[in-house]
Structures are given as C-alpha cells and as structure tokens.
Amino acid sequence: MLSVADANKIIAFLSAAYLATEDTVAREEFHRLANELRKASGQPLE
Predict the structure, then answer these.
(1) How far apart are the first and last CA of the chain?
(2) Nearest CA to 10 among 35, 28, 27?
(3) How confident is the model at residue 42 (pLDDT cuts 50, 70, 90)?
(4) Which residue has the higher pLDDT, 20 or 1?
(5) Contact 39, 4 (CB under 8 A)
(6) pLDDT digits (tens, 9 = 90+) for 4-41
(7) Confidence band (pLDDT; 50, 70, 90) for 1?
(8) How does DSSP classify residue 42?
(9) Is-contact 43 7, C-beta < 8 A?
(10) How far is CA 11 from CA 3, 22, 26, in A?
C-alpha cells in the first residue's frame, strides 16, 4: 500500500500538470491518475 504522504506528493505534482494544460483529455487523465493514487493509499476519491 502506498502511504498517504507519498500519494499526496505525487498528486501535488499531477495537480501542477493539470493546471498547466487546457487540454480536456490530458486533464481527465491527470484526474484519473490522482484518483488511482488515492485508491492505492486508502483515501477517498475526488
């Protein structure tokens, strides 16, 4: 299982990428990846 702290560090990186693009498909993928990290660390999905 991934630790919450490690997952949140990676999610913060994905968030920066999400905000750096206006491409809808890319944003959906960043969001999906963040939710996979949340699942892996036992956090609720957003």
Answers:
(1) 19
(2) 35
(3) very high
(4) 20
(5) no
(6) 999 999 999 999 999 999 999 999 999 999 999 999 99
(7) confident
(8) T
(9) yes
(10) 12, 18, 15
Phi then psi for residue 23, to 5 deg, are: -70, 120
CB distance 6 to 42 below 8 Å: no
Q: Is 17:31 a contact under the CB 8 Å cutoff?
A: no
d(CA 36, CA 30) in angstroms, rounded, equals 10
Residue type for position 17 = A
Place of tokens 């905000």: 19
- Read off the amino acid at residue 34: A
